Amino acid sequence: MTEIEKKLENNGIRPTAMRILIYKFMAQKEVAIALTDIEDAFVKAERTTLYRTLKTFEDKGIVHHIDDGTGISKYALCEQGCNCELDQDLHLHFHCSNCDKTVCLTDHKIPHINLPDGYIAEDANLVITGICEKCSGH
Amino acid sequence: MTEIEKKLENNGIRPTAMRILIYKFMAQKEVAIALTDIEDAFVKAERTTLYRTLKTFEDKGIVHHIDDGTGISKYALCEQGCNCELDQDLHLHFHCSNCDKTVCLTDHKIPHINLPDGYIAEDANLVITGICEKCSGH
DNA sequence: CATTAAATGCACTTCCGTTGCATTCTTTAT
DNA sequence: ATAAAGAATGCAACGGAAGTGCATTTAATG
């Protein structure tokens, strides 16, 4: 049994062929993945299957959902110790307006905000849009 | 000529009856407005007209577009001196998960973030989700 | 009043997310 | 090993919201 299969099983996900392929695909990408990206990479697979695979990954906590403001849901593998489901890993996301790629800046946590009286924060989403290091030429 | 008509004309917007009504509607609301909200309020009007009115307001800079993460575009009147089009008024937005309303916290600017080398910020969006003061009972 | 430009109304399209249900595959118990 | 049960997959279709093209109406201008 491979590392990936273990990872899936440890999180209560049956390690089917499709799921392993999708996990590998996401692992080798350093950017957030949209459903369409996976569709393009696995043309033989059904959109629904890919869709539900992402949902399963998210529900089981090995992937987190990213809203980068483009209107297209993206996903990224959670890093070791990511507690995104507990709202304890509120790192920010960077969306490049040039190449349209979105990356997790996991080292950059969202700063604490003092809200007005009566407001109770439960979650936060911070997206910086601009030019990524690749497009800016470092 | 009313204040609203002046306001519209000063921003290069022809003050038609519809536009004045929509402006008034937005002015009396203290929360961000979705297209559907305006549809519900003006059932006699065409969706497209309302849609394009919001677009016009946004283009002319008297309204700013809000992405609160719900997937539904919302809009709010710019306050005096709002420079949202210049990315100088990056206040944060609060979305209530209970009543589904979104408000501008104009006094709460998005803190400056030090990005990794090579990343160039052009815009930022910070949305805090939680319970608003009305739903929390102050 | 005639001409021109802008605003509006209507119909339609696209995109993405989502669901229902039948079918296939995998696991588990006998 | 095989049958039964449960989960995953494939297929078809729906739904909401944003957006566009074009004809028509309304408002501004000379």
TrEMBL record, chains A, B:
Its cofactor is:
Zn(2+)
Keyword annotations: Metal-binding, Zinc
- Show the InterPro entries listed in the entry: FUR, WH-like_DNA-bd_sf, WH_DNA-bd_sf
Copy out the cofactor comment.
Binds 1 zinc ion per subunit.
The record lists Zn(2+) as bound by 96, 99, 132, 135
Named from the GO MF annotations, one term is:
zinc ion binding
Biological process terms in GO annotation:
negative regulation of DNA-templated transcription; regulation of secondary metabolite biosynthetic process
> Which PANTHER family does the record cross-reference, listed alphabetically?
HYDROGEN PEROXIDE SENSITIVE REPRESSOR, ZINC UPTAKE REGULATION PROTEIN
Protein name per the record: Fur family ferric uptake transcriptional regulator
Where does this protein come from, organism-wise? Arenibacter echinorum
